[in-house]
Amino acid sequence: MATQADAAAAVRNERFAFTGNVSEYFRIWIVSLCLTIITVGFYSPWAKVRKRRYLYRSTRLAGSSFDYHADPVAILKGRLIAVGLLALYVASSYVAPGVEAVLGLAVFAAIPWLIVRSRMFNARYTSYRNLRFRFDPVYGEAYKVIVGWSLLAGLTLGLLYPHAHYRRSALIVNNSHFGNLDFVLPNLSGGFYARYIQVSLLMLGAVIVVGVLATLLPAGAVTADDPGSAA
Predict the structure, then answer these.
(1) Integer distance in angstroms from the first to the last C-alpha of the chain?
(2) CA distance linking residue 108 with residue 114, whole number of Å
(3) What is the Cα–Cα distance from 94 to 213, expressed in whole angstroms?
(4) How many C-beta atoms lie closer than 10 Å to residue 144's C-beta?
(5) DSSP for residue 148
(6) What's the pLDDT score for residue 62?
(7) Is pLDDT above 60 for 91?
(8) What distances in angstroms separate CA 10 from CA 2, 6, 27, 128, 211, one per listed residue?
(9) Contacts of 36 (CB under 8 A, 6+ apart)
(10) Distance CA 171, CA 179 (A)
């Protein structure tokens, strides 16, 4: 019977390695950009798949690379639907004023659903060693985390925003799977707060430095340029 020490010894830490290079990716990017412009955006799904496939295949873990299998036609259909809804929203503001507000609320209400569908799509078409990833269709949890915690963060004037950020990250990680393996994000809410505090202090320090410089530099400039100061 394996002991915990044996199990720990069997665990290996592997690092990601990226084997792509700038020149290859630039060629893919510039060709995709030109074709997207020439086709008035219709080539953009193929461009997305080409770029993502190159990045995935250039990313290796334990000697094997990832792959991306999405169908550009499926992406194009989704984008055409999105463009159609946008056109309907714009037209409604002219044909039936007030309806655009209802449509805007409907789109806002659909954001958690769209996020889950997007995660499911990308996971389904991502593979490693011929094994696909997957993401659970947790629509109810998505609404609770994305809408609920965002509202609480706003009501507390941002005090709960780091925890809301952690909950969104946990939603994505804890519902992702690779074969029969589950991803788990530890309880790192305190770490999120620490990071936000560090960034806030850095921003505050930058604002103070800029404010001090803005106060001192004009006075120094006037003193240097004043002809009477040399007398």
Answers:
(1) 93
(2) 10
(3) 50
(4) 14
(5) I
(6) 92
(7) yes
(8) 10, 6, 42, 21, 56
(9) 42, 43, 44, 47
(10) 18
Helices (H), the chain: 4-10, 22-38, 44-57, 72-95, 99-124, 139-142, 149-155, 161-174, 189-225
Task: State the pTM of this model.
Answer: 0.77
On whether the CB atoms of residues 179 and 131 are closer than 8 A, the answer is yes
pLDDT tens sequence across 7-50? 555 677 889 999 999 999 999 999 999 999 999 999 999 999 99
Which amino acid would we find at residue 213? L
Handedness of CA 194, 195, 196, 199 (dihedral sign): positive
In sequence order, the β-bridge partners of residue 68 are 126
How far apart, in whole angstroms, are the C-alpha atoms of residue 11 and residue 129? 19
Measured CA to CA in angstroms, residue 133 lies from 120, 125, 145, 186 at distances of 9, 7, 22, 20
What is the share, in percent, of the chain residues with pLDDT greater than 70? 90
Q: What is the DSSP letter of 156?
A: T
- Tokens for 39, please give them: 């086709």
DSSP class of residue 125 equals T
Q: Give residue 60's pLDDT.
A: 95
